[in-house]
């Protein structure tokens, strides 16, 4: 069966960059006021961060249905019989449901995997799924392997500006004010146990303590030396802090594979300027 492997810009890739990995992609939407933009087409991560610095309220939404329909129709015309989709997780977006609906409309068999997050692991999974299929693995076998990866995946986020989260409606004004006054730094997590939704893992009093606690969480979840693990440190205009934490990670997990990137906008717009996020998973 001829299967197309599909994702979205939650990977941080443009459509062209996804194609270089042998997969198809559609852009998610980012809006500010009356303006709507296609991620990595009309607007990039630096431009989104500039809007946040201007205290703009930015929202994200799923890829336009028209773009999904356009892609799936072309895939059908090109002889594909099915799509295997690994988009941004259901807990953060309705993209998966939209892809399933459009696939049925155009007559494609639909396979979807919820990675319970987004970003680097989303891109890894869709490319890995394609590789496994080309190696002769069945769909069920591929799903099992992706589930194993998912079981090892965690994303920890440390927002710096609680007032940004208040503006976005993710904290009550009182909680944001008190949090700022008390210098509370929440450590947030997104993973399989949270069903792809942002949840509070812990609360500490300073950014320094938040980073120390994040490292302790990682030590409990990643085997010694980090063998066969991917660790990505990401930031929203906090490069110096991010690089410092990256070096700490390398001391404890010297054998892991590392990435250092800007946090994808679909997460960064919710956490704000100064945020750090750490994503890790076992490469299977």
Automatic annotation (TrEMBL):
InterPro entries listed in its UniProt record: DegV, DegV_C, DegV_domain_contain
Keywords noted in UniProt: Lipid-binding
Protein name: DegV family protein with EDD domain
UniProt keyword RNA-binding, yes or no: no
GO molecular function terms attached to this record: lipid binding
Keyword Repeat found: no
Segments traversing the membrane: none
